[in-house]
Specification:
Elements (H helix, E strand, L loop, with lengths): L3 E8 L2 E8 L5 E5 L11 E2 L4 E2 L4 H23 L5 H5 L4 H10 L15 H5 L9 H13 L11 H13 L12 H12 L11 H17 L22 H8 L9 H9 L13 H18 L3 H5 L6 E4 L4 E6 L11 H7 L1 E4 L2 H9 L24 H29 L7 H15 L4 H8 L3 H7 L3 H6 L2
Antiparallel strand pairs: 1-2, 2-3, 4-5, 6-7, 7-8
Helix pairs in contact: 5-6, 6-8, 11-14, 11-16
């Protein structure tokens, strides 16, 4: 049979174990989902390990070693024609076939890896499923949904999983045993923990995701317990300093630019901003600025501007104006229910400046998108989980590059806060509120948000009210 070599590699944005039939180009891949918050900047593809002294990287190296050892043992004990057969050993048919060839049973999966094979193969009732297995199922369903569109919202559950692994007790309990005492147990453990730099451990976020996981279990008829424990009554109380009060009163972490600051940004000489050396950096600086300006003109989120496609743009003959229609990425699953579709849909006329920017880049994206980033040279099917997560990862990388550009711009213009992409959305919405030329419901509609969100998060909304 074939001689198969194993190697970890990145494939289309996913970290995989590659099985290659020696002397051929026949390769098969198995996605490695067991790693815990991996930092691939430290990955050494030659040494096949994370070159870092961080405890989490040492843990991940051990996980990789266990996975590799497991499949190497299989290769030593059995004959496989390809990596496809090797990775399919878990199926009952493959298992029976292998056992018929030899009396030696396949070794158990490594305990350090969070494989879900044990959960899938074990003949267990719903009540016997542990919280670890249930969280793994939730994460997999969100990443690879059968009905809705794929989402990155699984990350909150992944963070909860990691915290519960540290706590070490609740994670291995059967779902049927959970109740109010489980909330009390987690609250007591959280109260003894210290976060980064000795600060908080995101008590509210953790408890919210814990309750959400149990609510999903109740909805799936896994448990009868109703997870309505009043955990907010036990939330730690922190003294709010005068500095913090001023910080919150001025809009919090994301603040607005003044009209003067925005005009300085629009008209500034980009050659004064020094970025890392690279091909066409002057071109990219201009592209980054135009991206921010269109974000401002449309009051949109960065991810929606990045995904903006010519299919979203139309010319209205009646008004002789360009229109833009799209469903925000944040609300893509509203379409699963027809009554929510109209609420999620954003419809707006493009301003003259927005039209100028859009036409400037027309035809420069092979994928038909507005902005010609390398990511947009391909037309993406974001309903496909693999394409979605790869696009999400690369999209975040592009936004990170633009934010690094904006940090330097903010320093150059002496903006009194760190300038980021979201500052342009906030600036545009705040300006629309204070000008009072458009009803708040219409502002919310064009920005792809709600009146409630604007009232809750925009301090300058009070300035608009004062004008009446």
């Amino acid at each position: 049979m074939a001689n198969i070599s194993l190697k970890f590699t990145n494939r289309n944005g996913r970290f995989c174990l590659c099985a290659t039939v020696s002397g051929t180009t026949v390769r098969h891949y198995r996605t490695v989902d067991e790693l815990r918050n991996p930092d691939f900047k430290t990955w050494d593809k030659v040494a096949q390990r994370f070159n870092s002294r961080r405890p989490i990287d040492r843990t991940n190296n051990q996980i990789l070693s266990d996975i590799l050892r497991y499949y190497e043992n299989l290769l030593n004990d059995y004959d496989f024609a390809s990596g496809k057969e090797l990775f399919a050993y878990q199926s009952k048919a493959s298992e029976k076939q292998l056992q018929s060839e030899t009396k030696k049973a396949p070794p158990a999966l490594p305990s350090s890896s969070r494989l879900q094979t044990t959960a899938n193969n074990r003949q267990q009732s719903k009540s016997e499923m542990t919280l670890r297995e249930w969280l793994g199922k939730i994460i997999d369903e969100i990443k690879n949904p059968s009905r809705l569109k794929p989402s990155a919202s699984y990350q909150g559950y992944l963070t909860l999983l990691h915290k519960l692994e540290v706590e070490g007790k609740l994670i291995n309990q059967p779902l049927s045993t959970f109740g109010d005492d489980s909330f009390v147990q987690l609250i007591k453990w959280m109260s003894k923990q210290k976060g980064k730099n000795g600060k908080g451990t995101n008590f509210i976020g953790t408890m919210k995701m814990f309750a959400a996981a149990l609510s999903r279990a109740r909805k799936a008829r896994m448990i009868t317990y109703r997870p309505d424990f009043p955990y907010m009554d036990y939330a730690p109380v922190h003294k709010v300093t005068d500095k913090a009060k001023d910080f919150l009163a001025n809009g919090g972490a994301i603040q607005s630019l003044t009209d003067e600051q925005y005009e300085q940004f629009v008209s500034m000489d980009l050659s004064e901003i020094k970025l890392a050396r690279g091909v066409k950096m002057e071109y990219y600086k201009e592209l980054y600025r135009d991206f921010c300006m269109l974000l401002y003109e449309m009051k949109s989120r960065p991810i929606d501007i990045l995904r903006l496609h010519w299919d979203n743009i139309a010319y209205d003959e009646a008004t002789k104006r360009f229109t833009c229609t799209y469903i925000p990425a944040k609300k893509k699953n509203y379409g699963a229910s027809s009554k929510h579709t109209s609420k999620a849909l954003v419809i707006q006329y493009l301003s003259p400046k927005a039209v100028e920017i859009v036409l400037k880049y027309k035809g420069k994206s092979k994928g038909g998108y507005i902005f010609p980033f390398a990511l947009n040279q391909t037309h993406w099917n974001l309903s496909d989980p693999q394409q979605f997560h790869y696009h999400y990862y690369k999209g975040n990388h592009i936004c990170g590059q633009i934010n690094r550009f904006l940090h330097k711009v903010g320093q150059h213009l002496q903006v009194p806060f760190q300038l980021t992409l979201y500052a342009f959305r906030r600036t545009a919405i705040t300006k629309a509120l204070t000008e009072n030329k458009m009803p708040i419901a219409m502002i919310a509609k064009t920005a792809g948000t709600s009146v409630e969100m604007i009232e809750a998060h925009y301090a300058n909304y009070l300035h608009a009210l004062a004008a009446y």
